[in-house]
Amino acid sequence: DSVQVPADGRDTIRVALTRRVVESPPVVIDGLQQRLPSAGLGQADLDASGLSQVTGSGTPDVLRSAGRQVGVALNRPLAEVTVQGGNSGEHVMQLDGVPVREPVALSGLLSAFSPKALDRLTIHKAGFGASEGSYTAGVLEATHDWDRADSRYGSASLDPLSANGRVEQSWSGEAGQGQAMVAARTSLWDAYRASSLHTLLDTRTTLDRPFTPSWVGGTLDGGPTTTWAQTSHLQFRDVHGAVQQPITPFQQVSVSGYWGNARLGTDVASLVGEGDDRRALLSQDRYTWTNGFLQARYDWLASSRTTGHLQVWGSRHDSHTFFGVRPESVGTADPPGPPAADERILDQHSDEGNAISEGGAHAEVDVSLSSSTRLRAGVTPQFVRGTFRVRNPFLGILEHETRDWQVGSFAEAEVSPGLNWTATLGTRLTYVNARNQVYAEPRASLRYDRSDTALGGLAVRLAGGLYRQYVMQTEISNAGPTSVVPAVQFWLPIDASMAPARAYHTAASVLLTPTPDWSLRLETYYKWHPRTLQVDYAGLVQAPTPGQAPVQRSVSAQADFMTAGQGRAYGAALHLRREGEHVTSSVSAEWSRTERRYPGRFDGRFVPAPWAQPLRLSATVDVPLGDHWQAQGHWKGTWGRPWALRRGYYDYLALTEDNPFPTYDLSRPGDQTLDAFSRLDLGVNGTYAVRGVTLEAQVRVVNMLDRPNPFDWSLSARDASATPVPRTLPGRRAFVLVGIRY
């Protein structure tokens, strides 16, 4: 068409357009990441495909997948995540920005989240920014997946431990496309008992001789011990839901929620030799966990330079553990089997319970003042209520409840004075009502990017700052002689008697990309913890009296049962990766040193932390086998793990008896180290599409070399004749996952 406009005049034409919706898979453009590779340093990312891979437990496991990343370690067999030397309670797991406490169902035997519900998991390591929160080790940030590109309506999968399903729907409106999804998972224990999990439960419930007298009296130092009968009760389920709806092309609201429940029970009948006689002991373990959260978020693109969002949320965690033991008979006759599942042994028992409820809001604004300057600021009011109860033969009966509110805020400026340099300066200010005090946490980072060096592309990141933690997580070691879970975790907001934990981080990372296929990454860090919080075992532990109830203790303030220590952690990691057209492979080497000082214990020295893994090596290779299949191999080795004996030996027996094990000096836990951990996993993935339906299969052989990898030692007696009895992870095992996407 043509338009003629007269001199000094005007003309108007009207063009009628017809709306037509064109659907396509999501396209994600991350220009900052491509232009500045240093933006990805200091963190690790896992996408949906990485989170959906079958792991050593036989099912896709979010946290076990995270444990394969550089700087992230798992404490086996319970898959407790540690980030660059931090304890498992010194980081937080967030789902859609909401803290989820105890995110490991069955205390680490399975991940609590369904991988079919998640889009991405990002792990923020040492030197993370002010916007990420107040935690002394790191942040694990997961997000829900609203709409998957590889499925249009839903998917389902079946593995030896669980059945998983997901349905999704999208719709078009005047403001844009809305999306919704629901993902659910349930256990298959009643229909099929995976041999690997059953073997692990059998190993963990073998009667521990040194702990048994604390419950039933006597010495029990002679004669063999056998498990006469063992039964397990296992159940878990979880459900995720999320919906997202645009209001206008520049505004949208989203709502998501999660609920998970897990129950684990074991009943064990053990025979203990006493000369020519045998003594039967019945014991019970019961564990339950429930997690849930709900959040709603409003996102607003206010202008070409300004975005903001407002979020309200609430979450709750409940857990309860019980252990009971009863001498059933004395003599040579065969003892009865384990008690009925609904029977509760109350003769000698311990129990722990913890609940934490949290609720709050978060408002944030992001402004680009210019092409080189960006400002972010946010405020988070939060209310926290925590309760716990402990009944333990060594600690007595402890009960405590704390509730408090706090207001956290942050401001952060990112400045790019040139194409190569990026500096970020920020701070957090948190008002804690219980202490009527405002705490500051300044943080900074400096990044450098250059693509034309003699060695190829170069990216460098230096970061550091001050980090505090206002919701403390700690644990109490389990003293049951057949307990499955070695320690029970609990969370509490700090009260007026305890200052928050504090840590200083420094971190440096270098990324070299000599060619598009090859990359070499070096990560180093140093963390100084001038204040750590943990249970005051030295002040609380006392020798139990079998047959008598534990003593009720008064704990009106957290200082009555908690104490402050110190710590330090430092290390370096080297990661080499090749992404070729036919073969993708990587090799990693990590060295670290993690030490803690516990007041009143270990002669006041710094000792290796129980979760330390001084040397780790790993290698991964992916090879395509035609158009539909891919072979994978993964090997990991760990050396020098300290605190080889059961944790309860160091936390209880060393404080109640003089030299209970003359062969082992329990005041030097670094002297007892486990044999090397080494595991080779091989697998094949395959997909086949026909008429809009995609069939998938994953086959894994875990621990291909069938190594007996120990996770701790139990001892045979309480005297100089004590010999270590390694408790090992399951040997070689095979898993198959089958699924469908449509």
Verbal overview:
This protein is mainly β. It contains seven helices and 34 strands. Strand 32 and strand 33 (724-728) form a beta hairpin. The strands form five sheets. It has a 22-stranded antiparallel β-barrel. It has a five-stranded mixed β-sheet with strand order 1-6-7-4-5. The protein is 6% helix and 56% strand. The model is unreliable at 30-34 (pLDDT under 50).
Summarize the structure.
Helix content is 6%, strand content 56%. It is mainly beta and 742 residues long.
What structural class do the secondary elements suggest? mainly beta
Which regions have little confidence, pLDDT < 50, spanning 5+ residues? 30-34
Overall 3D shape: globular
Mean pLDDT: 89
Between the first and last Cα atoms, what is the distance in angstroms?
Answer: 46 Å
Give helix % range: under 10%
Radius of gyration: 28 Å
Could you describe the largest sheet, including whether it forms a barrel? Answer: 22 strands, antiparallel, barrel
Number of strands: 34
Number of helices: 7
Strand residue percentage: over 45%
Name its key features:
742 residues; 7 helices; mainly beta; 22-stranded antiparallel beta barrel
Task: Reconstruct the topology from this structure.
Elements lengths: L30 H5 L7 E5 H4 L10 H5 L5 E4 L4 E4 L7 E5 L2 E2 L18 E7 L13 E7 L9 E5 L3 E11 L4 E11 L7 H10 L8 H4 L8 E24 L2 E24 L2 E25 L4 E26 L16 E23 L2 E20 L3 E20 L5 E12 L4 E17 L2 E14 L1 E7 L9 E7 L7 E13 L4 E18 L1 H4 L21 E18 L4 E14 L8 E3 L6 E11 L3 E11 L7 H10 L20 E14 L2 E10 L7 E6 L8 E5 L4 E9 L1
